[in-house]
Amino acid sequence: MGQALKIALQNEPLVLSYMDRAGKIAIEQVADGFGMSKGQLAETAGLARETLYRVARSRTAKTQGRLREMLEIISRVADWAGGKEQAMAWYRAQPLPAFGGRTAEALVKDGKAGAVRDYLDHMAVGGFA
């Protein structure tokens, strides 16, 4: 894992807790950690169902990036949501007024994880939705 990625992830303990020694997101651990099947996890991250069942596809940059984005967002809200399970529920179901009522899950699936992270950073410093 590159030094820049390590530094970027220092404040994302949930992401780091699901990484293997090679710096990849461990799919089985994430699915087990949230009580999901690999198929459910794929759907939640906006990936094709079979992607997480094939080792080669589960380790691609696109797949790993999407899972990392999802975990980064969940990690940012876990403290005030009451834990990672509640943060996952928020991620999947809470409409965000600043995004026309779309959920963080829908936004990540559309490639807008950066906008969600920026929104959460804004809210963390006392900004308004």
Automatic annotation (TrEMBL):
InterPro entries membership: Xre/MbcA/ParS-like_toxin-bd (IPR024467)
Ranges for domain Antitoxin Xre/MbcA/ParS-like toxin-binding: 79-124
Pfam families: Xre_MbcA_ParS_C
Top-level division of the source organism's lineage: Bacteria
Protein name: DUF2384 domain-containing protein
